[in-house]
TrEMBL record:
The lineage of its organism: Bacteria, Pseudomonadati, Pseudomonadota, Betaproteobacteria, Nitrosomonadales. It comes from Methylovorus glucosotrophus (strain SIP3-4). Gene3D superfamilies: Tetratricopeptide repeat domain (1.25.40.10). This is MxaK protein.
Amino acid sequence: MAIGLKTKNALLSVLMLTGVIGSAYEATQLWQIERFNTALKHNATLPLDQYPLTEKFAAAYRQGNSGEYKHAIQTYGQLLEMAPDNEMQARVHYNVGNNLLRFGLSRRVNDDGSLIEDARYALMQARASYEQALRLNPALLPARFNLDLLLSILPARMQQSEKEQSGVQLSNLPIGLP
């Protein structure tokens, strides 16, 4: 009986030690994530150099927030080459679409109320980016919402003319990229 009790106590001690070590590991991970998010919120340099993908994503995000939409789109384009899976590529396309949408909306309109060519081009590219994001990840609801929003603000004749040109590539980049 005494041997069985000692074995049970030893087993329970090992399980408890494993639980304490696991809890300490999870607490360390949460602390690193919180430190990373705090640095990102305050536009500080990111403290962890072992995450080049996340660091590039954060740089593109900061560029977009500061109004440097073209630079942000270029950085997101570089990020597409680094993206390991379709879900990350979908998120990159979504963010490219967001920056193109913001760029297109920040452009002024002509005297007659029509969109200038830069704005029209940016909005069409934003649409292509959102569609590409949805092709890669149909469950990406923010991309679907932004695409619906974009389609609701586009002039009707612009949407129809784009449908007619669906086989035409807008630039030397593949459709969906800025």
